[in-house]
Specification:
193 residues, single chain, 76% helix, 7 helices
Length: 193
Amino acid sequence: MMDKVIINIYRDLVMDSNSNILKVAVNSFICFASWLSKAGAVLAMLLMAGMTLHVILEILLRAFFDSSTFILDEFVGYGVAAMTFMALGYTFETNTLIRVNILLTRVRSKLGRQIIEFLCVSTAFSLTSFIFMYFWKSVIRNYERGSTSETLAEVPLWIPEAFVLFGLSIFIIQMLAYFLRIVSGQPLLSEQD
């Protein structure tokens, strides 16, 4: 008896494409992914501003005080890596991420485009998840060992890697939201040009 109730609920929610609850859940997740992507982009912008201020400080110190922070190269490197990954979800969502659309431009049917988009995003999702797992293990290992950079700043290595990990997680969530857009029949990225 209980099995039939669960099967009916599943059929009503998942199998019925007109289900309002499912549409609300899908749209809520897409909105959450969009908000998270925008937050990552704002953080990337703040990192860019911080790097710019650090470069200006370094110029002033060298020009007027014959001194240096001695950490500019290291911190700018960390900032570029963090900024790149933090903005990745937003660039994907806004269709500004560089994509090769050779095949998509030749396919005219909507179903064909959906299948190609689904396969491409599945491949990207798999590769990004693999990279995410690598960084996850590296962050945990560096945190447990207390590893620091071999520079004057002795930055704990898990901190810059955690920014990359967070950016990858935003990108993965954005790809999941795009899966839902594809399945629910919403406009594809290639249709937003």
